[in-house]
């Protein structure tokens, strides 16, 4: 029997997810479909009997909005939420704002897959001439981080995401888990992948094949040492979830009409 249970999810679909663009640290609200995904997620978690004591999110709106909607659907709006930049999506550097399918056409599908899914490949860094540089680095939410704005990343590999996430996991989330609280983490595709890699011991080579769809809750059941009792479980209609995973994987491929 599990000593601890933890639910992680990638936020509902955002506007740039729909447009197949690298969103990263650009702040985007949920699309109408993303709102629907979050509502369905909340309804499903309620039906399964989950009662959360604490929620962790990134400081990006799509992560926070997803958590709000889920808690509303569950009738648990009162549950405290803690937000940290350390749960933010991976910083995609100079790739921010670009269309994934167009990138695959120009650079090849394998290169885009490496940029999106590999463990230690870092994309080119964002520079001050980038159209979204000022929007990101002048954002007030990053003036109250536990690092100076000068030390915020300009591009990240998944390894970098894990490196900045682990202190928050160890110092903030783990103590709450061990105190017996039922925790929901509403994060992003890559911060969730990084956490799964750490908790489940997924190899550097195998993490490239781990894909998370938007708005689908993932259950981790852990022993007293926070070791998994089995592989993570996607909660919901398994056929629909596999279709959603394929849709995410296909985002980095050349459109069939352009081949």
Topology, please?
Elements: E1 4-10, H1 15-18, H2 32-47, E2 54-57, H3 61-74, E3 81-83, H4 100-107, H5 109-117, H6 133-137, H7 158-178, E4 183-187, H8 189-200, E5 218-222, E6 233-234, H9 238-250
Parallel strand pairs: 1-4, 2-3, 2-4
Antiparallel strand pairs: 1-5, 5-6
Helix pairs in contact: 2-3, 4-5, 7-8
Structure report:
There is one protein chain. The protein is an alpha/beta fold and 259 residues long. The protein contains nine helices and six strands. It has a six-stranded mixed sheet with strand order 3-2-4-1-5-6. Helix 2 crosses helix 3 and helix 7 crosses helix 8. It is globular, with a radius of gyration of 18 Å. The model has no long low-confidence stretch (mean pLDDT 93).
Key phrases:
259 residues, alpha/beta, 6-stranded mixed β-sheet, 9 helices, globular
Helicity range: 25-40%
Strand fraction? 5-15%
Helix count, DSSP H or I runs of 4 or more residues: 9
Q: How do the strands line up in the largest sheet?
A: 3-2-4-1-5-6
Rg, nearest Å: 18 Å
The N- and C-terminal alpha carbons lie at a distance of: 50 Å
Low-confidence region ranges: none
From the spread of the alpha carbons, the general shape counts as globular
Look at the structure and give the mean pLDDT: 93
Class inferred from helices and paired strands: alpha/beta
The helix/strand series, from N terminus to C terminus, equals: EHHEHEHHHHEHEEH
Largest sheet: 6 strands, mixed
What is the number of strand segments?
6
